[in-house]
Design brief:
The structure is a single chain. A 3-stranded antiparallel β-sheet has the order 1-3-2, with helices on one face. Helix content is 19%, strand content 57%. It contains 1 helix and 3 strands, in the order βαββ. The protein has 67 residues and is α+β, with helices and mostly antiparallel strands.
Length: 67
């Protein structure tokens, strides 16, 4: 039998949504072992005054096995 835990993480990137997700996972993996999956819970874009996207932000729900 195994037990899993879910944590929420916010991450951002000036490049893309995918890069924001990768950054959030990589940073979390520095201290959390046994990551098994991720849900992209929310996506947000910050814009400048002209409406151009300057930063992508994601809210992630990361699942890992508790040992």
């Amino acid at each position: 039998m195994s037990v899993a835990k879910v944590i929420e993480v916010n991450a951002s990137s000036t490049t893309s949504i995918e890069e924001a997700v990768k950054h959030g996972l990589a940073k979390t993996a520095e201290t959390v072992k046994g990551i098994k999956g991720v849900w992209v819970n929310e996506i947000k874009a910050e814009t400048d005054d002209k409406g151009a996207i300057v930063e992508w932000r994601v809210n992630l729900r990361i699942t890992f096995v508790v040992e």
